[in-house]
Specification:
The chain has helices at about 1-10, 20-25, 30-35, 55-65, 70-80, 100-110, 120-130, 140-150, 160, 165-185, 195-210, 225-245, 255-290, 295-305, 310-340, 340-355, 365, 370-385, 415-420, 465-480, and strands spanning about 50-55, 85-90, 95-100, 190, 390-395, 400, 405, 410-415, 480-485, 495, 500, 510. The chain is α+β, with helices and mostly antiparallel strands and about 525 residues long. Strand 2 (about 85-90) and strand 3 (about 95-100) form a beta hairpin. Helix 12 packs across helix 13. The longest helix has about 30 residues, at about 255-290. Its cofactor is heme.
């Protein structure tokens, strides 16, 4: 029974591997957790006192009701059933779910200097077996902090992200050519099939160009064989990870998933290492000539003297994995909603052409004068947080809302439920970008009600790059095309597969813009 529940839970994404001492902490007697309560003070409650999900509730909702790929929706249901904070306790899998921005803020402000994610055991196993270094997603503690301090530079600040605008615009230009080629394949000459897949190729090319300082050909008509192997390996790694994460270890000797998982990671690292070695040779040649190395992110990492080449390889691989889905999925959902709402799309088009006339390439300064553009992306991230559930392991005892949780407690942050809270977002299931415009603010919104890039020192290191990619790409797509739904398509809903994805391909019409349509505006 434990194997079944643990496997399904982990495959569904509700609980990643926890530190070995997490389960032990939950077995402490309640009296021990409150022994220090002052005489006469209210007794602090414990994990056992929380309402929440047990085994039979899990069986009912996940298996009988079929929510195993819709855990994001379960967040909303559980919040209605149990309140803003509840427990999840099935076998040894135990966690505290938080779906209130007020409680989330209290929790995250107690994180300390070295916040701890869930233990990414299977990723770490590959690194250990192959003698590779951990990256920002797998490293923890003081070593993580040192690594993150190095990685933050040249990427995290808006003023530093500006350095990559020309490179991103170069990739966006190729994306527009690629979209043109894709729509010409359709019988009517205007439909682009599986928009999310096309945008994935764009996002992978963009982040690779920034991290490796070279183009890898994802948007070419004929993708280079090595690059195609790299793309395939990323997909296979995530596909096999689902099974490796769910199945007991003894199956690794009899089923193909584990070896395929390791081989996929090997290909990813080998591809990256080849590009790193090539750049290192170029830097060495420049230094031998007495020249200062010229370049951006990879050059900075290799010449900083603060990280080893092995650490650069581990970090770049993990940054690459984290940097693709945010851009591609968010842009796909954005175009889907703009196609369904011509009024918002028309208003966005007017804003874009007012700041950046047709055929002109936008700059980062131009983006600062397009509030609706940024509001559209913010609203998409609110409706579809790329990672619908995130987590932390308490590195010290935590007291929240009258509950005492010992060190090692696993907390799950329910971002989907948080960002669809009606108290902060009236009509929470509607696509309403203007809610983010200053003049539309009618009430104070809690700052933790929508945090798609996380918070604090463990927030997304690539946030500014992802935002820049999305803003530049959307500006130029809307400049060139009017987006409409595919007449043969239907409503698209999100599915939770580690990240939030569409339950079917998003196919859209990309129509050439003939004239500046000034008929659309918010009114």
């Amino acid at each position: 029974m434990r194997v079944l529940s643990r496997g399904v839970l982990r495959w569904a994404g509700w609980s990643s591997s926890q530190p070995k001492w997490t389960g032990i902490c939950f077995q402490r007697r309640r009296e021990a957790t409150v022994a220090s309560t002052a005489a006469g003070a209210p007794r602090l409650k414990t994990f056992q006192d929380l309402p929440g999900v047990g085994f039979w509730s899990f069986v009912y909702w996940f298996l009988l009701r079929g929510y195993i790929l819709h855990m994001h929706e379960l967040q909303v249901i559980y919040k209605k059933l149990y309140g803003p904070m509840w427990k999840f306790a099935v076998g040894r899998e135990k966690s505290v779910s938080i779906a209130s921005p007020e409680i989330l803020e209290k929790m995250m402000r107690q994180e300390g200097k070295y916040p701890m994610r869930c233990d990414m055991t299977e990723w770490k196993e590959h690194r250990h077996l192959r003698g590779l270094a951990y990256g920002p997603l797998t490293e923890e503690g003081e070593r993580w902090y040192h690594l993150r301090q190095v990685l933050n530079k040249r990427m995290l600040k808006p003023s530093e992200a500006v350095l990559y605008a020309d490179a991103i615009n170069e990739v966006v230009s190729d994306l527009l050519v690629h979209l043109e080629n894709e729509r010409e394949k359709s019988p009517c000459g205007v439909v682009v099939q599986n928009v999310a897949n096309q945008l994935y190729r764009f996002a992978l090319e963009g982040i690779s160009y920034i991290l490796f300082e070279t183009r890898i050909g994802c948007l070419q008509k004929q993708i280079p064989a090595k690059t195609q192997d790299f793309i395939n390996s990323i997909g296979l790694m995530f596909k096999n990870f689902v099974f490796v994460n769910a199945l007991p270890k003894w199956t690794r000797e009899v089923l193909p998933f584990w070896n395929s998982y390791l081989e996929s990671w090997d290909t990813i690292f080998a591809f990256g290492q080849k590009l790193i070695d090539k750049r290192m040779e170029e830097i060495t040649a420049q230094l031998e000539k007495g020249e200062k190395p010229k370049g951006e992110y990879l050059t900075y990492l290799l010449s900083s003297g603060k990280v080893t080449i092995k650490e650069v390889s581990g970090s770049v691989a993990e940054l690459l994995m984290a940097g693709v889905d945010t851009t591609s999925n968010t842009l796909a959902w954005t175009l889907y909603h703009l196609a369904k709402d011509p009024e918002i799309q028309g208003a966005l088009f007017q804003e874009v052409v007012r700041v950046v006339p047709k055929e002109q390439i936008p700059t980062t300064e131009d983006l600062g004068r397009m509030p609706l553009l940024k509001a559209v992306i913010k609203e998409t991230l609110r409706l579809y947080p790329v990672v619908p559930i995130n987590s932390r392991v308490a590195v010290k005892d935590v007291v929240i809302e009258g509950y005492h949780f010992p060190k090692g407690t696993l907390f799950s942050f329910c971002h989907f439920a948080l960002s669809r809270n009606e108290a902060n977002f009236p009509e929470p299931n509607k696509f309403v970008p203007q809610r983010w415009l200053r003049e539309e603010h009618t009430s104070a919104r809690h700052p933790f009600s929508s945090i798609p890039f996380g918070y604090g020192v463990r927030g997304c290191v690539g946030r500014r790059i992802a935002e820049l990619e999305m803003h530049l790409a959307l500006t130029r797509i809307i400049q060139k095309y009017e987006i409409r739904p595919d007449p043969q398509g239907g409503d698209v809903k999100p599915l939770a597969r580690v990240v939030l994805v569409a339950d079917r391909p998003i196919n859209l019409q990309f129509l050439d813009r003939q004239t500046d349509d000034s008929s659309h505006a918010f009114g």
